[in-house]
Amino acid sequence: MIKAFILIFYSIISQSTFAQQARLDSLLNALKKHPQEDTVRLNLLNDISYDYYQLNPLEGIATANKAIALSQKLNLPKKLATAYFYKGINLGIKGDYNNALEFLNRSVKILNDAGNGQQALKVQNSIAIIYMNLSDYEKALDIYFKNMREEERLKDDKMIALAAGNISILYERIGKLDLALQYNQKEIDIYKKLNTVTSLADAYAAKGNIYDNLNEPQKAIYFYQQGLQISKGINYLIGIANNMGNMGSVYGEIEKFDSAFYFTKKSLETYSQMGDKRNTSTLYGYLGDIIISSPKSILIKENILPEKKYTTALGYYQQSLTLSKEIGSVLEQSQAWKQISNVYKLQKKYEPALSAFENYIRLKDSVLNENKNNAVEKINIKYEFQKKEDSIKAANDKKMIIVSAEISKQKAIKKTIITGAIILLISSFAIFIFYKKNRDIKGQKVSAEFNSKVADTEMKALRSQMNPHFIFNSLNSISDYISKNDVHSADLYLTKFAKVMRMILENSEQKEVSLKDDLKALELYMQLESLRLNNKFDYEIKIDENIDVENTLVPPLILQPFVENSIWHGLSAKQANGHILIQIKKEGKMLNCIVEDNGIGRINSNDNSVLSDNKKPLGMKITKARIDIINKLKNSNAAVNISDLSEGMRAEVMLPLELSF
Amino acid sequence: MINAIIIDDEQHCIDRLKDLLIVDHSAWVQLIGISQTVEEGIKLITSIKPDLIFLDVQIGNSTGFELLKRLSDRHFEIIFTTAFENYAIQAIKFSAIDYLLKPIDKDDLKTALNKLSDEISIKMTSAKLDILLHNIERKNDGLKKIIVPTVAGFEFLDVQDIIRCESDINYTTIFLKEKKKLIVAKTLKEFEEMLSDHNFFRIHNSHLINLACIKSYHKGKGGSVILTDGTEVEVSTRRKDDFLKKLSKL
Fold first, then answer.
1. Which of A54, A345, A452, A620 counts the most CB atoms within 10 A of its CB?
2. Among chain A residues, CA nearest to B104
3. Residue among B84, B103, B238 minimizing CB distance to A660
4. How far apart are CA B154 and CA B126, in angstroms?
5. Looking at chain B, which runs of residues are DSSP E strands?
6. What's the whole-number average pLDDT of chain B?
7. Of the candidates A491, A499, A661, which has its C-beta nearest B239's C-beta?
8. Dihedral of the alpha carbons of A351, A354, A355, A359, in degrees to the nearest 10
9. Which one of A499, A551, A660 has the shortest CB-CB distance to B105?
10. How do residues A537-591 score in pLDDT, each as one tens digit?
């Protein structure tokens, strides 16, 4: 059974019918007092027309006509649009759908031309309701969804709720109850939020209807009662009638016939009062159904003769049919025909039953035929698709953002990994090189240390060879001195020699001594020798000014063997005026130590030891060996050069310049 | 006239010194006594109160230091005579007392005696000897004392109080704890020789530092050290390796 439903066209104000009546009365009073044909009157007419739409559509239409005439006269298109709108809804509630559509469309055109799209939407909504009542669900749903999208964009909650409610009703009609419930809930939520009580009452009624269609009568009754309670609280007639009518129908279904009668009749009364033909028609149908189903006891209680119950029911059905024909509602007509056919069947009047049934089928098909259903489905799909598309687009955008974020993240990760890998590679390579170098250096260091140790030992050995060499030569000198002088002076000489020897011993303990110390020792040695030889020679020490004698290091006793050689082999043979010149020069990174004498030289010397390398004096041999070690140790090119002068000879010792600081 | 005595256990050493004094210095140095043992020496000193003592370090089984320890009245000058005893020479150097190495060189003796006549150091002897004996007793710990000649006279220092020495041509500035400093008429090289066995190291031509006073070392070409008094001293490139070796042994 298809439940009755109310049309919610457009309600600007939410108030009780009594308050509405009161307002209407005052408006009518104002109109009487204002006969001048001007804007004030026009506004009054429009307001009155609107107020009539729920109370008396016929008067509403009449008033709207006046408003139309006046606004045309005053040339006020906006007011005209309003007047057309109100005429349309009055026609709609009256059931004159075709005319309603005509005026509503006019209104829309004017509003759109004037650029008032929002107002146009409201009118469009009413148009959709008309289409729905005309069973043109395709057009209705199309408008609803367009409106809803637009309202959602404008964030107009009230209109969204309205659209949701209408969509819910439409889905219910075409049997998509889950969707119907969904949109109904949306509607209820908004109304609760907005505290729009009348609309909430209507929405509960709609919810009850859906549950009824879901064969859950208890739930249905629960929601109807909710709606009824709210409606009664504010004396909202439509809500009262609607909810009571529906309750009557459901009680009939669950065979609580007394309650069914009570509520149905109450509702019928209210609707007739209100002049709502469509709902009156529906309720006549209910009443017929209840009469057919009721047991005798109830029928008697209702003053209906049980034997005449079919005739009575048929009467109500025909009234229903008449009314539905008047309002042009195919659905209502088909319903009425079905009921009529049923009654004929029960009366065993099969011919009229069949004829009625044929009418029912024909009309039903026109309502729920495949094409229409498909069309509805198509729009539904279109809407859902568009919605989906929107959400897909949004999701895609989101996805794209996520994806691009992910891509850049991945890129960054990739970059980081590559950079990290490169850094790792480079650093491991560097570490390897460093390690290798370090190891090499360590190895070199170790071998260098070893080499230097070996060389040091060799050096030490050589130096210690110098000491006995020096001592023996000194003993020779002392012996020579003693043989030539008295004991006393020999003793003094010895003391001096002890001093030189101490110094030389001290120096020779060190690897390197300062040039100053070495030269001091050398000088003392030369003084002693000069003393021994009765000052047969003198000496001179020349040091370059740019040499810091204290800070310059030399191997100890490096020059002594050359000086000794000059004295013993060059000068001792000479009679007088011997001269030893010691020069210390800085040549680049080398220290050149030169010993020159004006002795007899190698050519005239009887001593062959100065001539060839293997016959060199021991001291010079040792010196040569020491210099070789120095070269090995310091990777230098220290050298000894012995050359002949026109008179005497020259020994050059080139040493790497070493500084202590 | 300086009244001198010789305390030495070896006759030939006595003879040589006697010889030298008579030949070169008889005009102002008079030898008034000779002793060959510590006991005799003490008696001799207390009885004749000489102005100058030529004191051998090693006297038989005893030492000259032993002799000095037992003297309460030390109003004399001392010149040590010694052969080759490193620790003794070191101690003598620390106390700024003169010494002659045997066999005694005629020129060295002359220098020593000249120095004696120049200096007004007689009254310092007792203090110098205290330091000397202190150092001899504390042969191996670091709590040595050193006497340094300053413009005003002598200064007695604990070696451990010296943070660093800085050369200033023929002078040396000694930086001590508590921000004190001294200018001494000795070369840095002399200090280096004296102190390098006492945990001092010459890190630079101009710097000798107490290794115990290093707070931190900063790497560099040669690097530098921060000392406990907050001063930063450069380490010579050529000394770096030796210095680090020395540090690692600390």
1. A54
2. A495
3. B238
4. 13
5. 2-7, 29-35, 52-56, 58-59, 62-63, 77-82, 98-101, 145-149, 154-158, 162-168, 171-176, 181-184, 200-204, 207-210, 214-218, 224-227, 232-234
6. 86
7. A661
8. 170
9. A499
10. 999 999 999 998 988 999 888 888 889 888 888 888 777 788 999 999 999 889 9
Per-residue pLDDT of A300-343, as tens digits, reads 888 888 888 888 899 999 998 888 887 766 777 888 888 888 88
Q: Which amino acid is at A230?
A: I
- Per-residue model confidence (pLDDT) at position A1: 35
Contact status, residue A589 vs residue A553, Cβ threshold 8 Å: no
Helix (H, G, I), strand (E, B) or coil at B180: coil
Band of the pLDDT at A398, cuts 50, 70, 90?
low
Which residues of chain A from 490 to 549 reach within 8 Å of chain B, CB to CB?
491-492, 494-496, 498-499, 502
Task: Give bridge partners of residue A596 from the DSSP assignment.
Answer: A581, A650
How does pLDDT run across A4-39, given as a tens digit for each residue? 444 444 333 333 445 667 778 888 888 888 888 888
Interface of B with A in 91-130 (CB under 8 A): 101, 103-106, 108
Q: Among A162-171, A260-269, A511-520, A522-531, which is the least confidently predicted range?
A: A162-171
Helix ranges, A75-196 (H): 77-94, 97-113, 117-133, 137-154, 157-173, 177-194
pLDDT, position A12:
33
CA A39 to chain centre: 59
The model's pLDDT over A199-226, given as tens digits with 9 standing for 90+, comes to 888 888 888 888 988 888 889 999 999 8
* Residue showing tokens 């200064």: B155
Element of type H or E holding A580: strand A578-587
CA angle A1, A313, A93 (to 5 degrees): 60
A77: preceding bond cis by omega (within 30 degrees)? no
Mean per-residue pLDDT of chain A: 81
Neighbours of B227 (CB within 10 A): 19
Say what the pLDDT of residue A652 is: 92
CA distances from B200 to A33, B193, B237 (A): 126, 10, 18
- The band of A390, judged by pLDDT with boundaries at 50, 70 and 90, is low
pTM above 0.90, yes or no: no
Cα–Cα distance measured from residue B44 to residue A647, given in angstroms and rounded to the nearest whole number: 63
Instruction: Provide CB contacts within 8 A for A225, sequence distance 6+.
Output: A243, A247
> What Cα–Cα distance (Å) separates residue A177 from each residue in A166, A170, A207, A214?
13, 10, 10, 7
Res. A135: pLDDT tops 90:
no
Q: In the predicted model, what is the mean pLDDT of residues A525-529?
A: 88
Name residue, tokens 């009580």.
A197
Round to whole Å and give the CA distance between A521 and A435: 48
Residue A377 backbone dihedrals phi, psi, to 5 degrees = -60, -40
Q: Is the pLDDT of residue A495 over 90?
A: no
- Structure tokens that stand for B28 in this block: 């102002």
- Model pLDDT, residue A393: 58
User: B12 touching A, CB under 8 A?
Assistant: no
- For residue A261, the surrounding DSSP H or E stretch is helix A257-274
Q: Looking at the partner chain, which of B101, B104, B204 has a beta carbon nearest the beta carbon of A661?
A: B204
Extract the tokens encoding A189: 């939520």
Query: Residue A188 and residue A168: Cα distance in Å, rounded?
Result: 11
A385 or A163: which leads in pLDDT: A163
Spatial distance between the Cα atoms of A227 and A219, rounded to a whole number of angstroms: 13
| B48 CA: distance to closest CA in chain A (Å) | 31
3-class DSSP state of B95: coil
Does residue B37 surpass a pLDDT of 90?
Answer: yes
Distances (CA, A) of A438 to A434, A435, A525, B119, B245: 6, 5, 48, 60, 19
